[in-house]
Design brief:
About 40% of the residues lie in helices and about 25% in strands. It is α+β, with helices and mostly antiparallel strands and about 350 residues long. It has three domains: about 160 residues, Nucleotidyltransferase, domain 5, CATH 3.30.420; about 100 residues, Nucleotidyltransferase, domain 5, CATH 3.30.420; about 70 residues, Alpha-Beta Complex (Actin, Chain A, domain 4), CATH 3.90.640.10. The strands form five sheets. The protein has a five-stranded mixed sheet, with helices on both faces. A five-stranded mixed sheet has the order 13-12-11-17-18, sandwiched between helices. Strands 5-4-6 form a three-stranded antiparallel sheet. The chain is flat. About 45% of the residues are buried.
Length: about 350
């Protein structure tokens, strides 16, 4: 295949990519800033994220993905095209791209996703289920008849799958992730503290205080928001216990989704999972004590892998290096003529 090879994890909050020959993974927020009058790109990635909720009216700051789905196709294509141009520099040939897709995607949705990458500048594209890519990235040996459960929790979705012999036996994708936890914190503080905060502050409080289980010692943080009563700036204190309460329902929904996949898993594969444990990946899997909560719910040991945020893109990197494996599992690179 001609052209560079790129593995792409197009996430709700982060764009991650492996570029053939590069030592480090390219990572930038999935945000783009556009000048309203001219329609040209003002900034992208980290620079655009820093402008979020702080930019003047002359700019549109857009997050083209929500809940793991593309909600603004044109802007997503523009963002992808800009990232591809940055990664490929002045290469003549279009890149070969391996990208991930949510579990349970329809044929129509898969075709739309393929067109998105191809219209953004890819020469040929191969789509892999997100949880399968995470399993490959986690180092799961896929050429043996052994069942492994992988739960990949990102900002917009949690992809749950049982993989065996290089493919998914049972899978489910739920519209839940780190972004919904942030929203739960925002709602809790508005109702219980009469304070309005933004997404960035909610994310900071989540990283500082949130946990799926109770900590040995209570901790708290002081932050700043806007009073719901008079709209003026106000400082407030919130404890880890309160944040845990705010996100409790959301975390339980992930546990219930995992249970539902386990219930539909064939007995022999379920036996393997009970012996091997549940693998957790994705940025949101790093939440304090989440593996303990899932272990409690399922009675199966859960383990967060090393570098969980980059599991999917690392799996795509391995897949790009082994195109024979992709062909054997029925995955192929498609061009615009193929769809």
């Amino acid at each position: 295949m001609v052209g560079l090879k790129i593995g792409v994890d197009l996430g709700t909050s982060m764009f991650r990519a492996y570029l053939e020959g590069a030592r480090e993974i390219f990572s930038e927020p999935s945000v783009i800033s556009i000048e309203k009058e001219s329609g040209t790109i003002a900034s992208i990635g980290s620079e655009a994220y820093d402008m979020l909720y702080k930019s003047p009216d002359v700019y549109n700051i857009v997050k083209p993905l929500k809940g793991g789905s593309v909600i603004n196709y044109d802007i997503a294509q523009l963002m992808l095209n800009t990232f591809f141009e940055h990664l490929c520099k002045n290469k003549v040939f279009k890149p070969t791209v391996a990208a991930c897709m949510p579990a349970g995607i329809t044929a129509l949705e898969e075709r739309a996703l393929l067109k998105l990458y191809l219209n953004a500048g890819a020469g040929r594209v191969c789509l892999l289920p997100q949880s399968l890519a995470a399993a490959i990235g986690a180092g799961v040996i896929l050429d043996k008849p052994f069942g492994t459960m992988v739960v990949d929790i990102g900002a917009g979705t949690a992809d749950i799958a049982v993989v065996t012999m290089g493919s998914t036996a049972v899978s489910r994708s739920v519209k839940f992730g780190g972004d919904l936890l942030d929203k739960s914190i925002i709602d809790y503080l508005r109702i219980n503290h009469s304070v309005i905060i933004g997404e960035k502050t909610a994310e900071q409080l989540k990283l500082q205080l949130a946990g799926a289980v109770k900590r040995n010692e209570e901790i708290a943080a002081v932050s700043k928001g806007k009073s719901t009563e008079d709209g003026m700036p106000v400082y407030f204190e919130v404890t880890a216990g309160e944040i845990n309460l705010a996100i409790k329902e959301g975390l339980e929904s992930i546990c219930k989704a995992i249970l539902s996949v386990l219930e539909t898993t064939p007995p022999e594969l379920l036996k393997d999972i009970a012996e091997n444990g549940i693998i957790l990946s994705g940025n949101a899997s790093r939440l304090f004590g989440l593996h303990l909560l899932i272990t409690e719910y399922t009675s199966i040991k859960s383990i967060v892998i090393e570098d969980p945020s980059n599991a999917v893109v690392k799996g795509l990197r391995k897949a790009l290096r082994n195109t024979k494996y992709l062909k054997e599992q029925g995955y192929s690179f498609k061009t615009m003529e193929d769809i």
